[in-house]
Amino acid sequence: MRRVLGIVVTAVLALAACSPAAEAPDRQGTPSPEAPNATPHVGVQLFQWPWASVARECTEVLGPNQFAFVLLSPAQEHIQGDQWWTSYQPVSYQLESKLGTRAGFQQMVAACHDAGVEVVADAVINHMAGIDGGTGVAGSAFTHYDYPGLYADADFHHCDTASGDIENYLDQQQIQECELSNLADLRTEDAAVREKIVAYLDDLVGLGVDGFRIDAAKHMRASDVQAIVEQVDGDPLIISEVIRGSGEPVQPEDYLDAGSVFAFQFAKDVSGIVPGGAVYRALDLVDGDVPSEQAYTFVTNHDTERNRQTLSYKDPDKYHLANVLLLAVPYGTPVLYGGYAFSDPDAGAPQADGVVTPVDCAEPGAIEYPEPGTWLCQHRAYAGLAQWAAVVGDAEPQNVWQEGYAVAFDRGSLGLIAINGNSTKAIEPELTTNLPDGTYCDALAPDDCSHEVRDGRVKVAVAPMTAVALYVP
Ligand code: LM2
Ligand code: CA
């Protein structure tokens, strides 16, 4: 069911500036005869990024560093307001939002495709708005259960809890037919509602979108999600958002017939492992019974960085190491994250006249405690590691070395990583590796090309809470 993302980009690899170093006479410039094809593997959620900024990021950063895909924030018309979460209260399916226009969206998809980056849209299809009424950002008038020309009262669930909201997460019917935070809940079991949703998703596919995050998938029956995505044109990638709750009647595994799922348990587990220092445990992480090919792994997303269920930029060293582990282990397809600093969890991205202003990334590592509203572009710190991940592909860990709070391993014979989870002590092990003899640069510090592999051995110095990653380009 899952589409294989991305394309083979050997030509770009051959031009890679570093790793192994230009000094290495045996590997200079051109790939060696045994050089592999790299398959872009890593995605990034660019939270609340306007389309024009996404386009630029694809061209300048994501494409050249072999990112596989970008996950957008919702593109449809939404309620007015400064908060970021207005994006999750649809008012119509016009592609006019605080993030840009339909034309801008189309240009962004084209730019990303030109750069070899696929585009995954955030599809908010479980519900419409959560307020009594008003006018959307593109001028559509609505009330809670009436969206003229699109949905009327009969298209919504009206459930019988006292509040009309979900009150008991042990009751499947409530989870799927009551309201999530007062958001008008669509009757996704009805053919007429499905038709409207499919038309919206088809419109996005027509503009070149390659896949969808299914927002609040847990709040729709798995059979509804499956029926909807099966009707959509083409064969888009589907990633359902189903937050695992222990003992709950709705679980991520239920949605595997519809495609892939986000691995929330992985995010929480990796966020728990790093502070304890036992980084080697990340090698064994799996998310329930979700197979690797259907798991979209991450450290944080826009919700968990706010509810603190996972690490985030607010835990600089630990977050860094968790992101390294995310890309280092073979389980799942990793999704990095790029957002903005906040103190108020409701605060929207920097905006003017209801439109998010262009993203201006902070210098990496320049600021320890960024001002609210600073664009952090956290994913850029892992651009080199995204290339490493593209090269090692799905090769299993080999030559696993573990001592104290450090772990090192090869991934097949094309990449090695050494990770130091100790927050005070540096390490300098001499490792056995499958890497061919040569001089290598560190994918996490591209200017450091001091790493010599001789006779299958390499000595790597790793500072506290950092990692060193080497690969064959
Ligand atoms: C999601 N996935 O299932 C999104 O990832 C998450 O960010 C969304 O919540 C949620 N589901 C609905 O799509 C966010 C935000 C909420 C916010 C909603 C709707 O986390 O706080 O709720 O979007 O905008 C807000 C208010 C809430 C109010 C509701 C309705 O915070 O107090 O409920 O709007 O007006 C009365
Ligand atoms: Ca529902």
Number of helices: 10
**What is the total domain count?**
2
- What does the radius of gyration come to? 23 Å
Instruction: Give the topology string: H per helix, E per strand.
Output: HEHEHEEEHHEHEEHEHHEEEHEEEEEEEE
Secondary-structure class: alpha/beta
Strand order of the largest sheet: 1-2-3-6-7-8-9-10
Low-pLDDT parts are: 1-35
Bound molecules: ligand LM2, calcium ion
Largest β-sheet summary: 8 strands, parallel, barrel
- In CATH, what is the homologous superfamily of the largest domain? Glycosidases
Any overview of this molecule?
Pfam families: Alpha-amylase (PF00128), Alpha-amylase_C (PF02806). Residues 41-392 form the Glycosyl hydrolase family 13 catalytic domain. InterPro entries: A-amylase/branching_C (IPR006048), A-amylase_C (IPR031319), Alpha_amylase (IPR006046), GH (IPR017853), GH13_cat_dom (IPR006047), Glyco_hydro_b (IPR013780). The protein is α/β, with parallel strands linked by helices and 473 residues long. The protein has two domains: 43-262 and 340-376, Alpha-Beta Barrel (TIM Barrel), CATH 3.20.20.80; 397-471, Sandwich (Immunoglobulin-like). The chain is built from ten helices and 20 strands. The protein has helices at residues 10-14, 51-62, 102-114, 172-177, 191-206, 222-231, 264-276, 304-307, 316-328, 383-392; strands at residues 42-46, 67-71, 118-123, 133-135, 141-143, 211-214, 237-240, 260-262, 295-298, 333-338, 351-352, 355-356, 397-403, 406-411, 415-420, 430-432, 438-440, 451-453, 457-459, 467-471. The strands form six sheets. Strands 1-2-3-6-7-8-9-10 form an eight-stranded parallel β-barrel, surrounded by six helices. Strands 13-14-15-20 form a four-stranded antiparallel beta sheet, with helices on one face. A hairpin with a 2-residue loop joins strand 13 and strand 14. The model is unreliable at 1-35 (pLDDT under 50). The site of ligand LM2 has 14 residues, from loops.
